[in-house]
Amino acid sequence: MKSLFKATLLATTMAVAMHAPITFAADAAKPAATADSKAAFKNDDQKAAYALGASLGRYMDNSLKEQEKLGIKLDKDQLIAGVQDAFADKSKLSDQEIEQTLQTFEARVKSAAQAKMEKDAADNEAKVKRSATLLLKRKA
């Protein structure tokens, strides 16, 4: 379980690092916190830990929002409970159940994304045909 968690955390951390400029672009417009961040943390390690947690939280929140666009709505409270349980080494699922569930979920997300892409393509094709028909009628 710990090796799976470490791999998942590492992958998520890497994803956060790779997507940080995109993920946080919307957050750049938000006003900065008014509290002095130096006062909130005893040392740089606490500040770094908090920053990693905030970054991870934003990434997960953005992921949930993107999944909702595909018609998939995960329970944010259960996601947070899963993270807390993993840190406490008290997972409600076995490693095998976690792996199987994540594989099934990944397939579901891919399927939903494919369906949305096909629908969008069909919608765009219909718009192009309508526009072409109108253009031809105007020329005639």
TrEMBL record:
Signal sequence segment: 1-25
Keyword Isomerase: yes
Keyword line: Isomerase, Signal
The keyword Oxidoreductase appears for this protein: no
Any one biological process term the GO annotation gives: protein folding
Annotated GO MF terms: peptidyl-prolyl cis-trans isomerase activity
Enzyme Commission (EC) number: 5.2.1.8
Sequence ranges assigned to domain Peptidyl-prolyl cis-trans isomerase FKBP-type N-terminal in this UniProt record: 46-126
Top class in the EC scheme: isomerase
Name the record gives this protein: FKBP-type peptidyl-prolyl cis-trans isomerase
Organism, as annotated: Salmonella enterica I
